[in-house]
Write a structure and sequence with these properties.
Blueprint: H1 2-17, E1 33-37, E2 40-43, H2 44-59, H3 64-69, H4 74-94, H5 101-115, H6 118-129, H7 136-153, H8 160-176, E3 180-181, E4 188-189, E5 194-195, H9 203-217
């Protein structure tokens, strides 16, 4: 039970930070770029490719109409995720943390077990987080990183103080990367480590079950 609560919390924490309309060409400073993070470009084409994978999976679902209608900000969510990937990499590097393929596989096995099977995991990730099947491992890697960063900081993600400690580390990493987002997509908020004025639509769905489970096991 403790392991289930811990894994659920890590998943919800990652989704809280890691989840956010992208439809344009790049700005004058960085033509063709959706964002520049730490001097590295995130191309519009990269975001579009991730969006296409999700749309393909949604169209293959029995609930395709509902899934597509509920993911109107899919492109912005994918841009957010690509930026947040790099923030986590920086925070992990600062803490001397590496993530092995074995750790990601173990996280996936745990997620599959909790979801009731691989098919159920894929359906849940697609519905709640707009994640295509071929994107699941990348999301799980983020969750492993987040958990290990918390451990390195001696932070308990079940406590407000622990959440703040991790949030501060991510904010510091974000600031150091000098993130420049194409103005057509908004601006980047270093403090919140997300696109400004954006709230992922699945935050309430994901956090409530985790909070209820934690309360039940307390």
């Amino acid at each position: 039970m403790h392991r289930r609560r811990r894994t659920a919390l890590v998943v919800s924490a990652a989704m809280l930070v890691a989840a956010p309309l992208l439809s344009a060409c790049g700005n004058q400073a960085h033509p063709g770029a959706a964002a520049v993070v730490g001097g590295d470009r995130i191309e519009v084409s990269t975001v579009q490719a991730q969006v296409a994978d999700v749309r393909t999976a949604q169209n293959e679902s029995d609930q395709s109409v509902q899934l597509i209608n509920k993911s109107g900000q899919l492109s912005r969510a994918k841009l957010h995720g690509l930026i947040f990937d790099r923030i986590l990499d920086k925070a992990a590097a600062d803490a001397g943390i590496k993530v092995s393929r074995k750790e990601v596989q173990e996280m996936r096995q745990s997620a599959v077990s909790q979801s009731g099977g691989e098919t159920q995991l894929q359906a849940m990730m697609l519905q709640q987080s707009w994640v295509a099947p071929n994107q699941i491992d990348a999301v799980l890697r983020e969750q492993v990183q987040l958990s290990k960063i918390a451990q390195a900081l001696g932070a308990d993600l079940q406590q407000p103080a622990g959440q703040k400690a991790v949030g501060d580390a991510l904010s510091a990493a974000s600031k150091s990367l000098h993130i420049d987002v194409n103005p057509r997509f908004g601006t980047w908020d270093n403090k919140q480590t997300q696109l400004a004025n954006y709230k992922a639509p699945w935050i309430t769905q994901v956090t409530k079950p985790a909070q209820q489970e934690a309360a039940a096991g307390a």
